[in-house]
Amino acid sequence: MTIRTNCNNNKIYITVIGELENNNEIDELEDVISTLENKKFHITFLGANVIPKNIIERITILQEDNKCNIFVLKRYLFSYLQCLGIKCSYITETLAFKKTDYNLSCEKEKPSKEEVYDFLRNINKAYGYDYTEYQIDSIMRRINISMIRGRISDFNTFREQVLNNQEIFHDLFLDLSINTTEFFRDHEVFSMIKNKILPYLNSYSHVKIWCAGCSIGKEVYSLAIILKEANMLSKTQIYATDINPYVIEEARNGLYSISNLEKAISNYRKAEGEKNFIEYFDINKSYIKIKENLKKNILFFQHSLLSEGRLNEFNLILCRNVFIYFNDSLQEKVLKNFYNSLDDNGFLVLGKSEGIQKNNGHRYFYKYSEKNKIYRKSNK
Ligand SMILES: C[S@@+](CC[C@H](N)C(=O)[O-])C[C@H]1O[C@@H](n2cnc3c(N)ncnc32)[C@H](O)[C@@H]1O
């Protein structure tokens, strides 16, 4: 990251180039902002897709006092700040697709599945992200969305641009990443974890949980809340992973739009939450912030379920609403990996529309609650 500060016609402009990658860079930017605290300034984020919590909090306060205007280049950051209710202006991408006029009425023929598979194999070679065993229909829909967004109607042109320009691949990567989530999603599952699984795990002196495909963190914080209410959080280590590094940054920040609060409170109550849900947050005008004590035992990091390296000795793995994007053979590979990552008697929780039927999962797991898609590791 580089910070440039300019003064022009009595206006101060700070430009932040690149992602803020470590605490030193965050401190550096905070120092620059501190020196300008009583002046009015414009701040522009050029490379960042997500900015850290401290900076967000700082500039939100300054903006409320009418001291700072925020500009962003990346659409990801733009949506993130908008979602938190922070005013910012979107500046147009310079390096986006070559803007061929996209006209739906003269849309070219759709690519065949074979062409798309070939494209995916080439993406894997060029960038190391393997989508060849994702559900092909969903991948084709996302490619179409990416082409419309990039205003490009010809698949071969799109393909060449993605394979030759990392920025354009990056846009496609974000379109391929579906991050829908909520607090206490499928509340019955959380009730069952609370009433059946946690009492069992409480007999251990130390508990290890993996939340795989955690998206922006709402699922893992829901888990942290029920662990806290069971007085088990302090002896539990939670790994929270996702392939998408930006959702991991959002999860670490723990800032969420206030507009979904009512639904979250209702889910929490239905999941038999024992307290007042908002006690776990600091409430700002337009967003809520998860309390630091819930974060202490959670380790967030980027990790793909397709990678070779193994994480192990878990007592419980949650991987919900991720298998829906995988074909049966990839689901089986990941299930085998979960089998090897679980302790004897360990639990696996999948999403409501997922299971172990069509993917040979019964070789590794048996049913604990089919209704809630909870399974246990088989003894071989
Ligand atoms: C729909 S979200 C589910 C979030 C959360 N588990 C829930 O159920 O609310 C699916 C998540 O899976 C992640 N994902 C997709 N492919 C993955 C992979 N190969 N490895 C790890 N995470 C992956 C996506 O980035 C996305 O955040």
Describe this structure in words.
The radius of gyration is 23 Å and the shape is globular. Helix 5 crosses helix 7 (166-176). The chain is of the alpha/beta class and 380 residues long. A seven-stranded mixed sheet has the order 11-7-6-12-13-15-14. The protein has a five-stranded mixed sheet with strand order 1-2-3-4-5. The protein folds into three domains: 2-90, 2-Layer Sandwich (Transcription Regulator spoIIAA), CATH 3.30.750; 104-176; 187-377, 3-Layer(aba) Sandwich (Rossmann fold). The termini are far apart. Strand 2, helix 1 and strand 3 form a beta-alpha-beta unit. 38% of the residues lie in helices and 21% in strands. Mean pLDDT is 93; it is low at 94-102. S-adenosylmethionine (SAM) binds at residues 177-181, 185, 213-215, 219, 242-244, 247, 304-306, 320-322, 325, 351.
N- to C-terminal separation? Answer: 51 Å
Count of DSSP strands: 15
State the domain count: 3
Write down the overall geometry: globular
- Spatially, the strands of the biggest sheet line up as 11-7-6-12-13-15-14
Q: What is the helix/strand order?
A: EEHEHEHEHHHHHEHEHEHEEEEHEEE
**How much helix, percentage-wise, in residues?**
25-40%
